Amino acid sequence: MSTRKANLTGFSPQKLAAAAGQPAKDPWARNEAWRYSGPFTRGNRFRGAFPGFGIAVVAFAGYMVYEQVFLSSAHDTHGAAAEHH
């Protein structure tokens, strides 16, 4: 004697899943392909996330070099003259 209830409709989800199997071809594959190719690749999306970042880094580095070479020597001489007074 089985403790399982009899299915009145005769429908079995397990049999349906076994009969369906995997589809031979994904009908949405062509519609999804554009998301991962061309300008939408992972590298291109990351590269476009920070426009102008490379230019800003170069400009900041140039300013830091300018400050160390030209401006700090002017501050050092002024500070040394003020200490001798």
From TrEMBL:
It is found in: Mitochondrion inner membrane. Residues 1-12 have a biased composition (Polar residues). Residues 1-24 are annotated as: Disordered. InterPro entries: NDUFB3 (IPR012576). GO terms for biological process: electron transport chain; mitochondrial respiratory chain complex I assembly. Accessory subunit of the mitochondrial membrane respiratory chain NADH dehydrogenase (Complex I), that is believed not to be involved in catalysis. Complex I functions in the transfer of electrons from NADH to the respiratory chain. The immediate electron acceptor for the enzyme is believed to be ubiquinone. PANTHER family: NADH DEHYDROGENASE [UBIQUINONE] 1 BETA SUBCOMPLEX SUBUNIT 3, NADH-UBIQUINONE OXIDOREDUCTASE B12 SUBUNIT. This is NADH-ubiquinone oxidoreductase B12 subunit. It comes from Friedmanniomyces endolithicus.
